[in-house]
Amino acid sequence: MSASPAETALSPHQPTAYDAEPNGVKPRRKLWPTRLRRPRSVRKFAPRLSFDAAAPPVDATEAMHWGEYTLIEDIISVLHRDGTVTWLRHVATWVFGSANLAEWDEVLRYYDTRREVHRVLTAKLYLPDGKTQNAKRASHVLAAPGPSSNRYGRSLQINYFPLRPGVIVEFEEQYDEFVVQDGGPSLINQFFLRTAVPCLQRRYTAVVAAPFQLHWQVHHDQAEPQVSQLKDYCVHTWQVQNAQGIEGDSWTPPGRDFLPWIDISTADRWNGFAQRLHMELAPRREATAEVRKLARELSADADSPLAKAQSAYAYAARQVRYGRPPAELEARNTRAASAVFADLRGDCKDKSSLLIELLEAMGIEAKLAVVLTADEGRTSYLPSTRFNHAIVRATIDGQHVWLDAASGLFGFGQMPDSNIDVAALMLDDAGFYFERVPLPDDNYFETRRRWQGEIDAAGNFEGRLQAEFNGEMAARLRHALLDRNEEHRTQVLRTWFGNDYPGFDADKFEYSDPEDLSRPLACSCAMRAERMARWVEDALLVQPPWFAPAAMSGPFASPTRLQPLTIPVFHQTDEQHTIELPPGVTPLAVPAPASHACDWGRYQCRIEAESGRLRCRRRFRLAGSMAPVDRFGEFRQFWKQLNWADTNPVVMSRAR
Q: Residue 268: what are its φ and ψ, rounded to 5°?
């Protein structure tokens, strides 16, 4: 066992040379079953688990609570000496919920007979009345992926019927690979010891034959495997009894960041995987003349490297739409620039590759980076190709700027939260290394807002709001405004600010060009609200109109949580209000300045009454990613203090 590959991955270092072998080990001679394309027997590594369908050892009400209760989850993964893989999965689950039952209506599997075989060993239904019924099976011939029509593809179709609450579904399948994977011989997998559904018996067996060696890492648990040797196979087995289910909600982090899970890889180095990714994703540089011409056109009016880079980014982000032709959806290689120019279309790797070519043509250094976005979790993997997104890091005037041309209309140098504070595998012709995508600096605000207005004697407000948007807010608003007529844009903005400030009517809009990705999206508008301030006898209660005031709702409605709480990795807002008060009104009670902080955020709010006006300032920042269950109360108390400060009115009185 070795944890070093993942730990090393997060340490920036000089580029490491590529290597064709992902683990530095070459496979040995082929097994006879591989030569004859026959399934390999793997039950010798982990005997079949059994269950009693007539008397499940679980209370039915408990199973109903979860929608289903897994009786057996058993997985065997084997890397043979010749570098091919066998995988077996056996599951039996007691199903009650409607959505859970629907998942078993039909099971489909596809495979290419030139490379592999997929078999369904068991597909059985145990009915509540004690009867047993086999699922309906069908096999279909279809074309396998390839440049020409063929009949090498197969699909397996399994239909369970009748499905009704209380049935037990049993499904066992085996996959055998007869050709070494394109990335070289390796066994890479992950296995959760706890999932959303509780499980009576859960077992994971990872088997590796010499000359290969298994590296594994258990996250958020101390589970140790049972290790045994069967001839030249080394067997690692993890087994859990009565694993509890997970009650998740919209604010639960990705499972890899808090649930117990096992990561395995037979690779002890990143070299081979990095080389494969570099070969697939590096700019093709097949349309040099076209790229140079476009670079000259885009940067014709640019007077600095920064302005040039902004023009290249705007083109890749705005002019090249996201997507690929249907015939290229499954292709792993980057599209050539000429193909992107032809239909102005590309996915994240195509857009990033084109952006790098444009920047290089402008004399700006740029590198390709691949990341696993944070919506999949920020916990690092062992060496593998488990990445799902491509971005760019440009070097402008000695400063690194991270660019994502595929995630929407983000401003230059701004990216979604899912791209931030994740490990990036940097790829260039010289080699590869890891770097962590940094957090924004302290001067970055997702929104800044400035109010100027007055309250009349009836408590009605009229004034003007100036707002500035960055990051995801700006990307969403740009998307809603671009390519739309003025009438629609006005309606979009009325709805946008009406949602930000319930009870206010917005009108008379002025806004910066949504096409301009080089600066924040700015917007100003007239704002009106009836009875923003309310009279209670001779007292006037004034509530400053804060953006998204902290509310004790959502995850904060309950004083406890069963799972950790997701927190934005970086969110920062700044607001200022200058509000003229009605004549003859003087301050009676002004809230004391509020300043609160915890490990996940900080907050400041100050309200001052002077010379017939209110001056209000509020700054709010979150930065964390996750609050553990045992510290949720601490964060909730912080949020409660924000709620008190955000809803604390100013009390004014009539002059006597």
A: -105, 10
Q: Which domain holds residue 464?
A: 447-654
Please count the other Cβ atoms lying within 10 Å of the Cβ belonging to residue 500.
18
Q: Which residues contact 362 (CB under 8 A, 6 or more apart)?
A: 295, 298, 299, 305, 308, 309, 312
- Do residues 144 and 152 touch, judged by C-beta distance below 8 A? yes
What is the domain-level CATH number for residue 631?
Answer: 2.60.120.1130
Give alpha helix (H) positions in 515-630.
Answer: none
In the structure encoding, which two tokens stand for residue 173, read together? 């399948």
**pLDDT per residue as tens digits for the range 51-63:** 999 888 899 999 9
Q: Which one is predicted more confidently, 145 or 422?
A: 422
Q: What is the mean pLDDT of residues 540-552?
A: 95
Structure tokens at 54: 């007539």
Q: CA dist 374 to 76, 91, 417, Å? A: 28, 29, 8
pLDDT tens by residue, 161-209: 999 999 999 999 999 999 998 778 899 999 999 999 999 999 999 999 9
* Secondary structure class of 307 (helix, strand, coil): helix
Structure tokens at 629: 């269950």
Of the two residues 272 and 46, the one the predictor is more confident about is 46
**578-629: per-residue pLDDT in tens?**
999 999 899 999 999 999 999 999 999 999 998 899 999 999 999 988 999 9
For 296, residues 6+ apart whose C-beta sits below 8 A from its C-beta are 361
Final residue before a domain boundary, out of 248, 266, 284: 266
Contacts of 337 (CB under 8 A, 6+ apart): 283, 284, 285, 286, 287, 290, 291, 353, 354, 357
| Spatial CA neighbour of 435 closest among 449, 447, 420 | 420
* Residue 406, number of CB atoms within 10 A of its CB: 23
Question: What is the count of structural domains for the chain?
Answer: 3
- Under a CB-based contact definition with an 8 Å cutoff, are residues 419 and 391 in contact? yes
Last residue of a domain, one of 233, 266, 299: 266
| Together in a domain, 471 and 352 | no
Give the Cβ contact number of residue 583 at 10 Å: 9
Question: Is residue 3 included in any domain, yes or no?
Answer: no
- What b/e string do you get for 176-194 counting C-beta neighbours within 10 Å, with b at 16 or more? bbbebbebbbbbbbbbbbb
Classify residue 619: in a domain, yes or no. yes
CATH of the domain at 259: 2.60.40.3140
**Within this chain, do residues 541 and 495 fall inside the same structural domain, yes or no?**
yes
3-class SS of residue 314: helix
**Which two three-digit tokens encode residue 533?**
């301030």
The Cβ-side half-sphere exposure at 409, using a 13 Å CA radius, reads 23
pLDDT tens-digit profile of 291-342? 999 999 999 999 999 999 999 999 999 999 999 998 888 888 999 998 999 9
- What is the 3 state secondary structure string of 434-499? EEECCCCCCCCCCEEEEEEEEECCCCCEEEEEEEEECHHHHHHHHHHHCCCCHHHHHHHHHHHHHH
Based on the number of CB atoms within 10 Å of its own CB, is 501 exposed (0-12), middle (13-18) or buried (19 or more)?
buried
And the tokens for 140?
Answer: 């279909």
Q: In what order do the strands lie in the sheet with 447-455?
A: 505-511, 521-529, 461-469, 447-455, 571-580, 613-622, 601-610, 594-598
- Pair (112, 206) in one structural domain: yes
Please tell me the pTM assigned to this model.
Answer: 0.91
